[in-house]
Amino acid sequence: MLLSDVVDTAEAVAATRSRLVKIEALATLLRMLEPAEVPIAVGFLTASPRQGRIGVGWRSLSSFDADHATSSTLTLEEVDEALGGLAEASGAGSVAVRGDALRDLASRATAPEWEFLRRVMLGELRTGALEGVLLDAIARAAERDAAAVRRAAMLSGDLGETARLALSGSADDLAAIGLEVGRAVLPMLASSAATASEAVEAVGEASVEYKLDGARIQVHRRGADVRIFTRNLADITHRLPEVVEVVRGMPVDAVILDGETLALDEDDAPRPFQDTMSRFGAERAREVVLHPWFFDVLHVDGRDLLDEPLRVRRDELGRIAPHHRIPGEVTADPEVAERVAAEALEAGHEGVVVKAIDSTYAAGRRGASWVKVKPVHTFDLVVLAAEWGYGRRTGWLSNLHLGALDATGEFGGGFVMVGKTFKGLTDALLTWQTERFQELAVRETPGTVWLPPEIVVEIAIDGVQRSTRYPGGVALRFARVKRYRDDKRADEADTIQTLREMLRG
Question: Catalytic annotation on 374?
Answer without folding.
Answer: no
